[in-house]
Write a structure and sequence with these properties.
The protein has seven helices and nine strands; from the N terminus they run H-E-H-E-E-H-E-H-E-H-E-E-H-E-H-E. With 225 residues, it is of the alpha/beta class. The model has no long low-confidence stretch (mean pLDDT 97). The structure holds ligand LXAUTJHC. The site of the ligand O=C1O[C@H](COP(=O)(O)O)[C@@H](O)[C@H](O)[C@H]1O has 12 residues, from loops. It catalyses: 6-phospho-D-glucono-1,5-lactone + H2O = 6-phospho-D-gluconate + H(+).
Amino acid sequence: MTNLAAGPREQLAEQLAEAAAEALRQDLSQNDRALLVLSGGSTPVPFFQALARQELPWERVDVTLADERWVSETDEASNARLVRRHLLQDQAASARFVSLTTDDETPEQGVEAVTRRIETLSWPASLVVLGMGGDGHTASLFPDSRELELGLTTDAPVLATRTPSQPQARITLSADRLHQARRHVLHIIGDDKRSVLARALSGDDSRELPIRAFLSCPLAVYWAP
Ligand SMILES: O=C1O[C@H](COP(=O)(O)O)[C@@H](O)[C@H](O)[C@H]1O
């Protein structure tokens, strides 16, 4: 139940956690396992915490990421670290988490092993929760990525990306693999991101604002000021 004493971002996180848990329950009533694909960054922390409190058969839930920085899991920039700290706690710790990194030096070297690993998951995903940056990127599909075109068009599930505006190399699920999910959510907060979304809705070039590639998934938007 939504806690009305909480701020709008916490209420939004709670509503999204309830919707995500419901999607997983529905799919788990038909299948042995269900898969949840999550984004990192700063936005999803209260959502992860609210989701960890949901009553679910967590041991039948697979969790992976839409994208990851090519850093160790102990690095503060690691999305896996965020998921482990804020979601995989208490009962939710029995979910199976599959990360997108290896010990290889570069994502180009690790991409094959990551592909093999994520192909063991229960696709199609029940739900993909996307985030979005101020530049319209989602997952690690950035407007200035050298591999943006590939990420938007390849039928490979995962690819390495290099982006001049970003300090780390990255690995990301492709648009094709993200599209295949049964449900899609965009989780964003703040007026700046609402304006970026409004811009995205008024055009159709995904190379300019990669979030556009997901606007007709259909995409349920969870936004709070
Ligand atoms: O780099 C990333 O940024 C986006 C948005 O992050 P936020 O900090 O603005 O919430 C995120 O969706 C993506 O997974 C992450 O790697």
